[in-house]
Amino acid sequence: MRPSPPRRLSLAAPFLILLLLTLLSPPRAAAAGGSSAWVALRGAAGSRKASPAEQEGAAAGLLRRLLPFHSGSFSFQIDSKGGVCGQSSCFRISNVVDGSGKGGAEILIQGTTAVELASGLHWYLKYWCGAHISWDKTGGAQLASIPSPGSLPRVQGKGVKIERPVPWNYYQNVVTSSYSFVWWDWKRWEKEIDWMALQGINLPLAFTGQESIWQKVFKSFNVTDRDLDDFFGGPAFLAWARMGNLHGWGGPLSQNWLDQQLALQKKILSRMIELGMVPVLPSFSGNVPAIFAKLFPSANITRLGDWNTVDANPKWCCTYLLDPSDSLFIDVGQAFIRQQIKEYGDVTNIYNCDTFNENTPPTDEPAYISSLGSAIYEAMSRGNKNAVWLMQGWLFYSDAAFWKEPQMKALLHSVPIGKMIVLDLFADVKPIWKVSSQFYGVPYIWCMLHNFGGNIEMYGILDSISSGPIDARTSYNSTMIGVGMCMEGIEHNPVVYELMSEMAFHNKKVEVE
């Protein structure tokens, strides 16, 4: 059972979301916003990057989709030399000097990437024009208050510059793909990616289409299509099949579905990269088809117990987990990373893996847990030598009786510091950083979980959201490097998400009242 979310709601004006990316250097430097932390941003993305001109074009394209009649009213400029933002990430909103605008541009927005440009556009539309931009199901884009072209409000003085206090702004939960995204086409995804950029999200999960990758990888290990029919869950249940909670339920997947999802993922990744985002791709967690036990009889493969499936029916429950300590784990893991690079290009160095998400290890021996973590990371790094492991921290809350200090340290320190990022998934209610000495020195992202199961209700702890990230960032020896939204389902409670998003740019607590 998932815990019921707390029910406290304050009223507040809508807020925005922003925050950029950087990869880790020493935790204290990252938390303090030191220059080394921001310079490490360059290493977060893969080699496939968008040029400044391409990012400016991506921001202009977003504007055309949002405000087609104002497409000439704004000028976008990437701060590629750091003259505006230095080594941090920011956007600056200012007036176009008379005569210097392109095609009658009135407002100039400069920023580190196209995400900052879009964030600056959103900030201006919200605070100068009184507009509100949300999901269609929560009001949509309310733009009637924006003056006509040629009459946009002027920005006082030399403009307004907004910097990110921490580099990352993460988005999604591994189950959001099933609760909310499952039936989306490119048109809906394009709108969502625009929303991400406007909210300042620069580290989105990108899980679409991975079954097509897995099909190719598993076939190279002599797994047949028939075997995979029993392995993959149906479209609405892929999140739990991916995590090894169930198999086959709602399936099988047609080849047409697999091909269509792969093509969709390539569009999603291309647009994310054009906007300067760093997508987070999946990696191998050990979940394998049942036939693996027969194909590799000497491999260390365990059949797991039931996980809330229908009557504990073995047709759906009790999946197979390849132990990370087995050499076959590394072979499969690196093959999956390399197949993604082959399909998508070198688009990221950050990979998600949640081997122990609601699956308890067979022993609490720290040495064993450490060996598992090391093997998981080795599989990633053999596929991509610059790999960084991003892990949901839900297990430290949901199975707190198992994950005591020795077990947490064993897992968190099983890879070099700076090669793992932990999502403090439920920090809005149960912040783990407070009871783990800042995740024992490992960089983490302060996250709001908020929604369970895609339930539509009016709730949200606005006072926690408005102060929690500030408390974490300014605490002693903080290793916090970002904020994030990890709701299980989206398209509800717009005030909550506006505030959480905007906390990425606040240095001080927001007075909610």
Keywords:
single chain; 513 residues; alpha/beta; Chitobiase, domain 2; TIM Barrel; eight-stranded parallel β-sheet; four-stranded mixed β-sheet; 18 helices; 34% helix; 12% strand; globular; disordered N terminus; glycosidase; Alpha-N-acetylglucosaminidase; NAGLU_N
What would you note in describing this structure?
The protein is of the alpha/beta class and 513 residues long. It has 2 domains: 52-163, Chitobiase/beta-hexosaminidase domain 2-like (Chitobiase, domain 2), CATH 3.30.379; 168-505, TIM Barrel, CATH 3.20.20. The protein is built from 18 helices and 17 strands. The strands form 4 sheets. It has an 8-stranded parallel sheet. Strands 1-3-2-6 form a 4-stranded mixed sheet. Strand 4 and strand 5 (141-142) form a beta hairpin. Helix 4 (114-127) packs across helix 6 (186-198). It is globular. Mean pLDDT is 90; it is low at 1-37.
Alpha carbon gap, first and last residue? 34 Å
Under CATH, the homologous superfamily of the largest domain reads Glycosidases
Shape: globular
CATH class of the largest domain equals: Alpha Beta
Provide the residue-averaged pLDDT: 90
Oligomeric assembly: single chain
Contiguous low-pLDDT stretches (5 residues minimum) are 1-37
Q: What structural class do the secondary elements suggest?
A: alpha/beta
The proportion of residues forming helix, as a percent range, comes to 25-40%
Q: What summary fits the major beta sheet?
A: 8 strands, parallel
Strand order, largest beta sheet: 8-7-17-16-15-14-13-9
The CATH topology label of the largest domain is TIM Barrel
